[in-house]
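Hi there,

I know you've been waiting on this one. I reran it after we fixed the sequence typo, so this is the corrected version. Both the input and the resulting structure follow.
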Amino acid sequence: MLIKQNQLVINGTTLEQGDLQAIANVASDVQAQIDTKAPINNAQFTGNVGIGEDSPSAPLVVNATASSEGIRVQRNGVSSQYISIHQATGGDHVIETFGNKALNFGVRDAQPITFKTTNQTRLTITSGGKVGIGETSPLGKLHVKTGDSGATADVSADEFVIEGSGNSGMSILSGTTSTGSIYFGDSDTNWDGYIAYSHNDRKMTLGVAAGGGSVNIDSTGQVGIGTTNPTAKLQVDGTFSVRSSASQYFNDSSNANNLTMTDSKAHFNFDAVDKDFLVSGNGFGHALFVRGSDSKIGIGIGTPDYKVDIDGQASTVGKVLQVQFNDDNNGAANNIYHTSNPNGLLIRNYYSGTPPTAPQTKVAKLTLSTVTNAGYGAHAAMHVEQTGAQDGYNAGHLVFSTGSNSSGLMTEAMRINNLGQTVPKHLLPEVYQPVIDWQTVTGGFTSGCSANTFYPITNFNVNNWATPIASGGQGFIFMIHWTSGNVNRGYHHTVTGHVPGVSANSYISYQNGSYATSASGAAQQNALPIQVSHHTGCSAGHHIQVRVWGDGSNYGSLYLQIRAEAVPSSSAYMSVWKV
């Protein structure tokens, strides 16, 4: 049946208005519904139905006369809210809604929705909600596929899958002065990490921790870590580590200059030939150089002649080599310094805490050793020994020692003391010790004293050094000098002698002068053997005696005593060494 204006076509027969009146009594209810536009309930039609179409070729054909016309579906008579199916002016087919209402597509059963072009399925929405473009069984929430790769997506990263049988990828297209980005966010921040490319300066940035750290690649391919403007192929602002469980290599089969740190001028394979290493900067061309051809190391020099060749540069004062350690003397560091006054090397032991106060403390040491593969060898050492509290720049002793490595101990062989005197082994401590430097004699042997009378020398107590020879003590030696002005008896007089060491309790026998022997010249009871020299020849005899004598009390002090025929015209002087 076809309904036209003023006409009704039923099974190909056209009924005009007059014909409709003729059958009015038969179909009065139909006529009434047509005239009043009342709904025809439960109507059934056989054949094709055409609206605006004389020869419908489908069960229902609607022939609209304008792009806004077609099939409208509305509810409850609200003509402003409807869905329209029509053909646009240009011939495109349109399904759209009016009246600010949504358009919903859905399948109530567990079946997919597919969209096709050229009778090919282009987009599939599965019953589980996954969307496949070019894929009817998507591997993720969104799966874009141009070809089968044979791979599967990991469940921890299957929200968006891009697949192809060859090269695959995606494009982020931005304005010429804008930035394209991929952001990584969480509940704390929506950009905790990101990848961004700036088209304005053509720079790529990899950011972490909401911008707290980044890696930047500039337009020339230079990479900066910790800096946004790298000036080398790789610039790291901060520390970095190269570590492997087996080894670390900076290597290049083409012999390139492998790695350069521009600020400190550090190069791996500097000359691009033999895998050497160079650090330069601050006016030093070769602050540190390791030559790859022979593994020789140069410090301050680019042509090392030895395994380690150090050029301290005479015009430069400062540390040349430092070995950091803590020792029993509270030494914080051993330093080898290059000094300008005088030019040379200074080996120094530096104390970070309270300096030592005890004499004979070793404050700096240099050890030379020769050892075979079997562990046998010999050692020699040189160290500086302090003379007292180190509260300033005090003179010290330079001590030389030797020994084998069997016990690790070395024995002192010689020293140069703080007075510049060279002391061989047989005069070493505890054997040798300068006790009294040149000083005025006390005890009465001075201007105005009587001739041929013994006077005690009270500058020191002999009993303090009573170490027996059997225990390594050798007593002490002394020198006494004075001027008498007596030209007949030599004018200037110098006396030297040696007092042997005895046991600690032997001083009791010194009473009454029992420990003394005859002196040179005329016989004199209880005198020590001495040597005497004069400034001029003696025209008359000059008797001089020296003895060790007690103070007259048991366990009392023992003193040197001296008598002379030509007594001092002023002060006498003396020095004493313990041996």
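Quick highlight: The first strand starts at residue 2 and ends at 4.

Best,
R. S.
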